[in-house]
Amino acid sequence: MMHCSEDTSIVKFLVAATCILDTLHVSFMCHTLYYYLITSYGVPTNLEYIVWSYPASAVVQLLIVIMVQLFFAHKIYRLCRPVVRWLVTAPIIIFVLAHYGFGMVVTVLLCFNNKMNVFTRTSYYSVTPSAVSVVVAEVLITVSLCVILYDGGSYSACPRAKRLINTITTYAANRCLLTSIVVIAELAVNVDQQALWTMGLNFIVGKLYTNSLLASLNAREHLWSQGSTSMSILNISSLHFADPPTLPKDRRTSQV
């Protein structure tokens, strides 16, 4: 993980919290896999029940997703014009909070009912709304970033600056595409009543969000190095040189 000396304490805390939660998520995943593949080997009836570490990993993953999406929502808020800031970020925050609410409902249901069929029984009022809300939030974040970047690049006359903005826009679109595909696949297998596939794909979602946050922060130095020349050109073009001071008459005559 690379760091920047200009990062605020909030960003450093966010990165530290994400890494700690990701480590916990991996630990719970390892316990879940060990239970189903090693402890329950030769005992097929255990596959009908959900081990405690899976709801725990779901809670940790939910926190990671919420933190990362709110981070990007905050960046969109800072980049937007003051007139439309809340108009753009309010729907994102609403769907992020909706995902958190539905996700907590799923987790509570898993704690009180440890049978695998809980996914299909709660599909239409908890699992499906949770997946839909996270996909909608991702689409809103990506569309907002792309529109803001396109709007900012349209006013730039420097080709390198435009290429830099196009690169950032491509990163944002790829991030949304990858996470949305996995979430939609998880929703599809859940509707098809494939509980084990749902658990497997659910493990991947947290990793995608962790990597999207860390990759976006680590890519800053590379993007800055690409845009350093273009930014220096833009800065030079915006300089205004003042008129040179006039010398007193007696000093000018003495110099002559």
Q: What brief labels describe this structure?
A:
256 residues, mainly alpha, elongated, disordered C terminus
Distance between the termini: 63 Å
Radius of gyration: 25 Å
Strand % is: under 5%
Structural class: mainly alpha
- Stretches where pLDDT is under 50 for at least 5 consecutive residues are 229-245, 250-256
Sheet of most strands: none
Shape: elongated
**Count of strand segments:** 0
Helical element count? Answer: 8
Order of helices and strands: HHHHHHHH
Mean pLDDT: 77
Portion of residues in helices? over 70%
Can you walk through the features of this model?
By secondary structure, the protein is an all-alpha fold. The protein has helices spanning about 10-40, 55-80, 85-110, 120, 125-155, 160-190, 195-235, 250-255. Helix 2 packs parallel to helix 7. The longest helix is centred in the last third of the chain and has 43 residues, at about 195-235. The protein is elongated, with a radius of gyration of 25 Å. The model is unreliable at about 230-245 and about 250-255 (pLDDT under 50).
